[in-house]
């Protein structure tokens, strides 16, 4: 029944963006299957995130970045009707943290945006990066660029802010939808992964630090 409940909660129509898929037959698809199998086996999440012996760390990070993008997309998609220009005129995590948007094209300086605008810019920006073959190469034998982990740090740091906003501003909606266990598991998985590979500056984790310690 839990699976059925989650199916209703995470209705496909509500997905914020179409899911990114790994091509069957590729090394990354095999890694993705391996990661999903350990996740479903109920293993300790701290063990699940560890790099499997003999695998490339960049491939492992790439698989997780795309998977977290898909899953956080879905979580935000279900919340989006509660996260409006009126309810969330600032992209924030409580009174103490405000996140401004900056990119290399339209917003050259950190700019105040509402939470829905920020989320929209963020998902478009990540989608553009993971579809860029020069950054996330999918062809066999094509090396990752030197700045690959730096780019992933930036993506994951910004995805973490989605958790901050959702937990601090929309947690009652998560509970009302019966999605608390699912969101908590996704958050824990994400948290252990970024800690395992030191992918996010610890200062960025502060808004949810008490929660992380309590789980």
Polypeptide structure, described:
The chain has helices spanning about 1-10, 25-40, 45-50, 55-80, 115-130, 150-175, 180-195, 210-215; strands at about 90-95, 95-100. The protein has one domain (about 1-15, about 25-215): MOB kinase activator (Butyryl-CoA Dehydrogenase, subunit A, domain 3, Up-down Bundle). Mean pLDDT is about 85; it is low at about 1-15. Helix 4 (about 55-80) packs antiparallel against helix 5 (about 115-130) and helix 5 (about 115-130) crosses helix 6 (about 150-175). The chain has eight helices and two strands. A two-stranded antiparallel sheet has the order 1-2. The chain is an all-alpha fold and about 220 residues long.
Question: Could you state the CATH homologous superfamily?
Answer: MOB kinase activator
Strand order of the largest sheet: 1-2
Strand content: under 5%
* Major sheet summary line: 2 strands, antiparallel
Which consecutive residue ranges, at least 5 long each, have pLDDT under 50? 1-16
Q: Structural class, from secondary structure content?
A: mainly alpha
CATH topology: Butyryl-CoA Dehydrogenase, subunit A, domain 3
**Distance between the ends:** 24 Å
**How many domain regions?**
1
SSE pattern, N- to C-terminal: HHHHEEHHHH
Compute the average pLDDT.
84
The Cα radius of gyration reads 17 Å
Q: CATH first level: which class?
A: Mainly Alpha
The number of helices is: 8
Quaternary structure classification:
single chain
Q: What general form does the structure show?
A: globular
* Helix fraction by DSSP (H/I, runs of at least 4): 40-55%
